[in-house]
Amino acid sequence: MIEDSNLSQFSLLDLFNMEVKTQVVVLNNCLLALETNPDPKSELAALMRAAHCIKGAARIVQIEPAVTLAHVMEDCFSAAQAGTVSLTADCVDVLLQGVDMLQHIAENPNVQPGNNPHMQSLMNAIANIANSVTTPAISQVNILQPTPQIESLPAEIASFPAPTFPVEELVTTQNRTVRVSTDNLNRLMGLVGETIVATKWLEPFTDSFFKVRANQLELFNLVTKLQELLSDRPLDKHIKEHLNAVYQKTSECSQLISDRQNELESFSQRSGNLAHRLYREVIATRMCSFTEGGQGLPRMVRDLSRQLGKRVKLEIKGKYTLVDRDILDRLEAPLTHILRNAIDHGIESPQERVAAGKPEEGIIEIEVVHRAGMLSIAISDDGRGIDIEFLRQQVVNKQMTNAEMAAQLTEAELMEFLLLPGFSTTQTVTEISGRGVGLDIVHSTVREVGGTLRAVSHPGKSMTFYLQLPLTLSVVRTLLVEIAGEPYAFGLTRIEKVLMLAKSEIAVSENRPFFLLDNQPVELISARQVLELSPAAVSPDLLPVVVISDRLNHYGLVVDRFIGEHSLVVRPLDARLGKVPNISAAALMDDGSPVLIVDVEDLVRSIAKVFSSGQLSQVNQSARQVLAKTYKRVLVVDDSITVREMERKLLENNSYKVDVAVNGIDGWNAVRSSDYDLVITDIDMPRMNGFELTSHIKAHAMLKQIPVIIVSYKDREADRIQGLEAGADYYLTKSSFHDDTLLKAVIDLIGEG
């Protein structure tokens, strides 16, 4: 029952709407069960009760259309109970439309049969069923508008019954239900988090009490020993009395401290357990069974399969698995779209299935489980799947890549194209699908709640979508890392991999460090640089790396150290801060210290900006410093590949380590992002000439000590003077390649290689 004190704010019409929503769930579920249950006595009884409840509630609020419609439906169910009517699939179609009409009336209580010609037609059709008149065809009572097209907006994707209240949660305990606002629950969740933190403050006191107890015991032993040593000696009476008093007081203090220490330790444990129990109960108020949120899925699958002339059975495994209501609400549209796609594209017609050696009835299975602290949902069908080679050709046809690159794509990489906006494998556009919009919305919605989506196809056999999601949006399972002395949290669902990377595994291409992961290059970047924090003083030989990604790019983020996995109660940032770059929320750790939760999507965009700027700091500085002790490093900047290679070979043959840059801008970015002992540059180059590059280097506080050699075809005195005025240490002509002039200049400036 619902407590009156909690419903005084609602009008009778609001209560009627709530009653209809509750009974509509029963009507839908039991009508669907009629088609598969050969002896539906309990279902018919439940249908009778639901229709009767709606009729009574409608009579109280004087909504006569609902009274009349519920009454004729009740007569129909009564006739079926008596065995005078057999409810066929066509009859169930009509009755389901009656259920939809009841819901429509509840939401629009002023509707009248005269204003809706379909309503009277529907009532007559249901009355005909109850009176055993020839069952009408579905088209005769098509009182509903066509199902919204699934490729439009997310809110229009579903063909569910009326949605649940978006701003309220239901908390049910032993048939007692109260309505609690989401804001109240969020505040309560925050207080619970603070309570857990507060209980941690007792731990230092219990530890201190333990030390005091140990010291007191030691003091008691010393007093006891002193008393024993003095017991055989003649002592003044007053001294003996004081000694006995000290012994007695010490004994009393020892016992008192022991008792209080045990009590405090017990209280600390009880307090911690109580806080965690409270935490679990508050979390439970935000949870509901999957079947409660997905109650419209069986109806949608049944209606759409009949519309398309297919036979499809929906099986839900783990229907009572608990899911966060917020997550379930957001998953409504994605799940509906995937199911509609499965029915329209995946499941073949009965004739095709028989020809393929399959049963006429297709199976769609939804499996919902908690796994490794996450919510896993798998939606699979036993239909035709997707032909990987056809998908590969579609990628080329849509000019998303060339044929050569497409031939090298793995099956998993090809399946990622299904999640891109505007991508569709079907050649026809229908009311159901085919506009290339949908799966990208599914993917975006899943990522918005911190989850991942993966598609796997077995051509001719099946298609499966795997969704991995957090158990709740209020509490997130995270990996804590340390960056510049501060903790940061990464949601586990947003992490591709974590590893300790040896510097020997790091390679550099075009001044970008990277390593190979599953034979694919992953570019590396320091988390300190992305978050604009101070660089590390030293770099260890093993680098802690967090691999993150968006839909297209993977990056390895080098952090200072891994702290460990923790469940954090999410606390939103103050709205006055606006959008904080790279940060999504905050939380409190067990010791009360704050921790920032990283916005991975935003962080990936920031990483891309750093890479595009070219101002990338090397993540393996210490390795390069060791290398510099053995090799002198030289940067050669020239837009001529012939000249670059000639200078590179000349220097490498004399034991120098050489990097090259193709123009002045490339050289300027390179010299800022790595350590060089010498720069050799041409003059005439696009984007930035050699004079400008030299001036930039010599004007930079950190780089001005690097010697610069200008090597040019120009042998005019004016050019030589301009180069030296810019700060060049040597000005040579390219004829010096044919003798030892260049090599002598290099040795003169930085020594032998």
Overview of this structure, please?
The chain is α/β, with parallel strands linked by helices. It folds into 5 domains: 4-145, Four Helix Bundle (Hemerythrin (Met), subunit A) (Up-down Bundle); 173-288; 295-470, Heat Shock Protein 90; 478-613, OB fold (Dihydrolipoamide Acetyltransferase, E2P), CATH 2.40.50.180; 631-750, Rossmann fold, CATH 3.40.50.2300. 46% of the residues lie in helices and 20% in strands. The chain is built from 24 helices and 25 strands. The chain has a 6-stranded mixed sheet. Helix 3 runs antiparallel to helix 4, helix 3 (64-82) runs parallel beside helix 5 and helix 21 (664-673) packs parallel to helix 22 (690-699). The protein starts with 11 loop residues before the first helix and ends with a helix. Residues 1-5, 133-175 and 622-629 have low confidence and may be disordered.
User: What's the total count of β strands?
Assistant: 25
The fourth-level CATH homologous superfamily of the largest domain is Histidine kinase-like ATPase, C-terminal domain
Task: Identify the CATH class of the largest domain.
Answer: Alpha Beta
Portion of residues within helices: 40-55%
Q: Which stretches of 5+ consecutive residues score pLDDT under 50?
A: 1-5, 133-175, 622-629
For the largest sheet, list the strands in their spatial order: 12-16-17-15-14-13
Overall number of domains: 5
The value of Rg in angstroms is 37 Å
CATH architecture of the largest domain: 2-Layer Sandwich
Derived structural class: alpha/beta
- Gross geometry: flat
DSSP strand content: 15-25%
Distance between the ends: 87 Å
Return the CATH topology of the largest domain. Heat Shock Protein 90
Average predicted confidence as pLDDT: 79
List the total number of helices.
24
Major sheet description: 6 strands, mixed
